Amino acid sequence: MEWFDLGKKIKIFLTTLGIFFFLLCFGFLGAGLYFYHVAVVPGKKNFLKDKKVSKSSPLYPGDQWYKSAKKYHWTQMSTTDHLKLVANYLPADKPTKKTVIIAHGYMGNKELMAPYAYIFHRMGYNVLTPDSRGHGQSQGNYVGYGWPDRMDYIKWMRRVIEENGKNSKLIMFGVSMGGATTMMVSGEKSVPSQLKAYIEDCGYTSASDEINHEAKQLYHLSDFPRWPLVPILSGITHIRAGYSLYKASALKQVKKNHKPMLFIHGSKDNFVPTRMVYPVYNATEGPKKLLLVKNAPHAASYQTNPELYVKTIKSFLDRYFN
């Protein structure tokens, strides 16, 4: 009789434990789907600041210039999933073979990169400002965090070369997610030889590192449940969007880069923490320079010290591009 009671208790315990783990897994799956919608599905994000440019901002002249500047509407199809991608091409005032390709940030678009386009246009460059997949006028139902986008930007480079000739000279510039995209591009063998240098501003080390950081910052999640939540989110992203958050690594990509790269980061960046710039800076094999802008928050190095920002870019390009 005692053995029977013990067996019954063990059976009840195992059944309860099984139900508990089932509910726990179901709960994590539900949380993963929720965070997929928050982090990967394009749309309005409550945690992002208003991106309107005030008249007193150093960004304002470039913002106004872009609206009336001569521009051409370019389109192309993505290689693997046949999404329609859109960009604006702004020719320099004087004919030149020098072109900068600019990558915007998370939930940004080509118009928001107007102040940066203005910097390069004043230096005499042609400017190409694409909308990344899932942003602006480009098609896509997910944010690529730079990983699938890297191949789109390489295709944009080839479009510029097709239009302007084989003796084109290109640079790539990006801010935030665009900075990470720039670094991810740098590790690809298919980058055309006409691409001479990279400039990245406040890009993250990897998509998984950034998601982990934001889960901690915005939702105050400790190591558990961030693990296994982030791996579950990465798995959902792999199934729905075709890429892994862990594979989307700027750090791994810059280790394969041998071309000049300028790294820019604000010293008060809490969104993509300043500490992320050091591993990627140390990892690249090419000529490099690091600019830390004192007191600059995320993606605000130019606004914080526009003179230093432009001077550093010009000095870098004078040394490695011309």
TrEMBL record:
InterPro entries: AB_hydrolase_fold, DNA-binding_regulatory, Hydrolase_4. The chain crosses the membrane at residues 12-36. Keywords: Hydrolase, Membrane, Transmembrane, Transmembrane helix. The keyword Zinc does not apply. Residues 95-186 form the Serine aminopeptidase S33 domain. One of its GO terms (molecular function) is hydrolase activity. Gene3D superfamilies: alpha/beta hydrolase. This is Alpha/beta hydrolase.
